Amino acid sequence: MATRIRQKAEKRASKVKKPYAIAKYIRMSSSKVSPILDLVRGKKAEEAVAILESMPNKGAFESLKVLKSAIANAENNMGKNVDTLFVSEAYATSGPQFKRLSCRAKGSGNVIQKKTTHITIVLDEVVGG
Fold first, then answer.
1. What is the pTM of this model?
2. CB 121 within 8 A of CB 129
3. In the CATH hierarchy, which fold is given to the domain comprising 17-125?
4. Is 87 exposed, middle or buried (0-12, 13-18, 19+ CB in 10 A)?
5. What pLDDT score does 1 carry?
6. CA distance 48 to 86
7. Which phi and psi (to 5°) does residue 44 adopt?
8. Going by C-beta distance under 8 Å and a sequence separation of 6 or more, which residues neighbour residue 114?
């Protein structure tokens, strides 16, 4: 039994760590954030920041905060150079939904679903660049 635990620990330690940032429970639908993240996926970090700053959407504002946090994590925690970073993964997953009841005619009601999303951005270094 201890061998399996040791093997798992070695596997975890051998994984390549990439700088990332996650924003959870953002009060917005993930379907509104996903097209914005599609624009920055694969771009250099500085270029992605410029793209998100020029967009007027709320989803772009939230994604920009996550991207800046990932860049800061790469710089401060991992000692990586900002010029060599690019966005390797960017995705939005749906979080829990808040359900509210809206009163309607004849004693009935409609359910209003207030959706939330989790935004994840993973950076990586350009190889040979």
1. 0.85
2. no
3. Ribosomal Protein L22; Chain A (3.90.470)
4. buried
5. 64
6. 8
7. -65, 155
8. 27, 97, 98, 99, 100
Q: How far apart are the C-alpha atoms of 67 and 101, rounded to whole Å? A: 35
Two tokens, residue 52: 């998100």
pLDDT value of position 37 = 95
Q: Residue ranges of the domains in the chain? A: 17-125
pLDDT per 10-residue tile (average), the chain, 129 residues: 87 84 95 94 94 94 96 92 93 95 94 96 85
Side chain identity at residue 6, one-letter code: R
93 and 62 Cβ atoms separated by less than 8 Å:
no
Crossing angle, helix 45-54 and helix 30-40, to 10 degrees?
130
Dihedral Cα 21, 84, 35, 62, nearest 10 deg: 40
